[in-house]
Amino acid sequence: MLLKLLLGLWLTLIIIAGFSFPITETPTNWYDLPFVPGLEDKARIIFFHVPMAWVTTLAFIISLIYGIKYLAKKEIDHDLISSSSAGLGLMFCILATVTGSLWAKFTWGSFWNWDPRETSIFVLLLIYGAYFALRSAIEGEEKKATLSAVYAIIAGITVPFFIFIMPRIVEGLHPNEAIVSKGKISMNRTMLVIFLSSLSGFTALFFWILNLRVRTERLEHKQSLKGD
Amino acid sequence: MNEIIFKTEGLAKTFNRRKIFKDISFELKENSSLAITGKNGSGKSTLLKILSGILSPTRGSIEMNIGGKIIRHDSYFKKLGLVSPYLQLYDEFTGQENLELFRDIRGIEATDNYIEDLLKLFKLWERRDDFVRTYSSGMKQRLKYAFALLHNPSILLLDEPRSNLDAEGIETVYKIMEEQKKRGILIVATNDSEDIEHCEQLIDLNKQETSGK
Amino acid sequence: MRESLAATLTIFKKDLRSEMRTRYALNALLMFVITTLSIILFSIGNENVSPELLSGVLWIIIFFSTMSGLSRTFVSEEERGTVMTLHLIAKPLSIYFGKLLFNLLLLGGLNIFTVLLYLLFVSGFTVLNYSIFVTTIILGTLGLASGSTIIAAIIAKANTKGTLYPVLSFPILLPLLLTVINATKLSVSGAQFSESFGEFQILISYLVVLTAISFLLFEYIWKE
């Protein structure tokens, strides 16, 4: 209970700080954020968009790990965790796509540009969508668990190919080059602290919701066993 | 030495969180036979599929031991034959082509003479060059027997052995069941009392206990 | 090992013979290609379309014809209930490779047909470097067959097979499609063979990785 309240407080503070701390060309006060040429106020997206994209990836990896565990041990509980994580991943993937796309509209002039990052999140969105389409088309819990785990593994293995393919097709527009240039991070300490707090905050939020979902699923599972 | 042991330990299958059966344990040695009975939906066919290695059990283990060697699960198909209503042969091939195809895929040494013998035994020799899709259900059932016996299996599993057969066909099946007991192990899933009489042991899936009769 | 290889070849021959008799996939596939190609020709009309754009269109035809026919080999076994028979006569790996071989032959033949028609009738599409073009078609066919065979094995076990097939295949095949389109563009823009090495490396590693993972996972799909 206490943890829940703390997490809520933590994220509230991040949201307030992320939106209200002023951006100045020469940060002097502790709350000043640095000015990134070409991004200006739009740089604030980093506090929300990047953590969501990170959670999307994390959720996919967790789903993959528990999928593999399911195939090895055939414990339905592992599939429960795997599919719950994928469900949250889909939600965060949509959020990351929407926030990124809004930001792109104001920076690059259009909602969608097929930047390599945009493409990879789009592919993840497709994979998540296909994963749930597959799950709803299979009868039988064990079959559903097995086939969706297999699909997630095959899909997961093709994703890294995009790292090599995308740069050959389109040039990157993504501003990580502007913020992280030549290994030197142009965030000041305040920005970094808020960014990292947000990253950890959203990760904690993800694990908290995952935990809730897995527990309710387990209860439902038990209930249906009793009803037999 | 070529002794055959086929045993299971605590086999259970759940499907969609519903228990179909649990705790099936038995041990069969060469020259023995087992009848599996139970109401419709009690899981007779499912159990046979698990025993033949098509489905995996939710819990429990199966062990097949032939001549002192444990057979790997993915090689069960080499040692057992199965006749089941769920089994379908290839419609677009003739009876004889089906058997030749199965022989070639299995990579066994069944001669053309042996295939001829099987087709004659099951009264299919005259129709050997007709497509299976033109066969009656009884003829298809007889062809399934030829399919199951093609590789002289150590273990023969029969699911509803009499279905679609006429009196003469049933006669042949009983003869085969007796021969199988001499050669190896016979397992029959049935609710027919005459079928059960051909077996020494019995498992009732509704009561779930093994008993000698 | 030798035994499994023989079983693989026999399953391949069985599928081939069955296809020759029933023409389940072939006729529909050929008609699909002809229909799609004529729609494209109608919509091009007298327009001048760049060969680069036409490179993409070629692979759109190939992708969708793959999606309309290559699931047949697994779906027909599932629908007719002969899956159990296969279980009882061969190891999963022989079955997988037999089916893969069959799909490879089917797709290879289909792609030769498609490419020939495309070169003959789509006047704006002129290949300047045939060595790049042919290598791309070959590597593309191999990768496409590998990816679509394993997905076919998955969807054969699901309820809504037809619509699910492209949905599941697209994310998996996208790296391949982007690369072959890129390589085809190089072949029509008159690039040197060595300029497309990068593309070929990606295609070869894609083929190896996907076939290896299919090899490892097929047993889980096959055995319920």
Properties at a glance:
B: 213 residues, Rossmann fold, globular, C: 224 residues, mainly alpha
Beta strands of chain B, count: 10
Radius of gyration of chain A: 20 Å
What's the helical proportion of residues of chain A?
Answer: over 70%
- Main-sheet strand order of chain A equals 1-2
Structural class of chain B: alpha/beta
Low-confidence stretches of chain B: none
Q: What would you call the shape of chain B?
A: globular
What is the element layout, followed by pairings?
The complex is a heterotrimer of chains A (228), B (213) and C (224).
Chain A: H1 2-20, E1 23-24, E2 33-34, H2 49-73, H3 76-107, H4 116-136, H5 141-158, H6 161-169, H7 176-179, E3 180-181, E4 184-185, H8 189-226
Parallel strand pairs in A: 1-2
Antiparallel strand pairs in A: 3-4
Helix pairs in contact in A: 1-8, 2-3, 2-5, 2-8, 3-4, 3-5, 3-8, 4-5
Chain B: E1 4-15, E2 18-29, E3 32-37, H1 44-51, E4 59-66, E5 69-70, H2 76-79, E6 80-83, H3 95-106, H4 112-121, H5 137-149, E7 155-159, H6 167-183, E8 185-189, H7 193-197, E9 201-204, E10 210-212
Parallel strand pairs in B: 3-8, 3-9, 6-7, 7-8
Antiparallel strand pairs in B: 1-2, 1-4, 4-5, 9-10
Helix pairs in contact in B: 3-4
Chain C: H1 2-22, H2 26-44, H3 51-69, H4 72-80, H5 83-89, H6 92-121, H7 130-155, H8 161-188, H9 197-222
